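Hi,

Apologies if this is the wrong queue. I'm a grad student, and the batch job for BET1 homolog from Onychostoma macrolepis produced an output file that my downstream script rejects. I'm not sure whether the problem is my script or the file. Here is the sequence I used:
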Amino acid sequence: MRRAGLGEGGPPGNYVASGYSVYEEENEHLQEGLKAKVHALKHLSIDIGNEVKYQNKMLGEMDSDFDSTGGLLGATIGRLKLLSRGSQTKVYCYMLLFALFVFIVLYWVIRLR
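Support response: The file is valid. Your script probably expects a header line. Output copied below for reference.
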């Protein structure tokens, strides 16, 4: 069976005159373009993997930092609970003295201007 434009009038295997080589060249050109895109995607996926590993490491470090901060805050809250279990009069007296001290310092700063 003969196909139009493929080997008509020439010796078998001579595809240059038929346009077959044009399709082969276009196919090779598209193949090279596809190969370049696959290469770019490969490098992009490797870079994404490296970034994910780095971010995972950083999150692990942040987790340990937050755990230590949580422990510190827990100890501080425990001390505050212990302080609040004591005499309420002492707490109110300390708060009043602190507020009075702040107001005196503010008055002194404003007056010296």
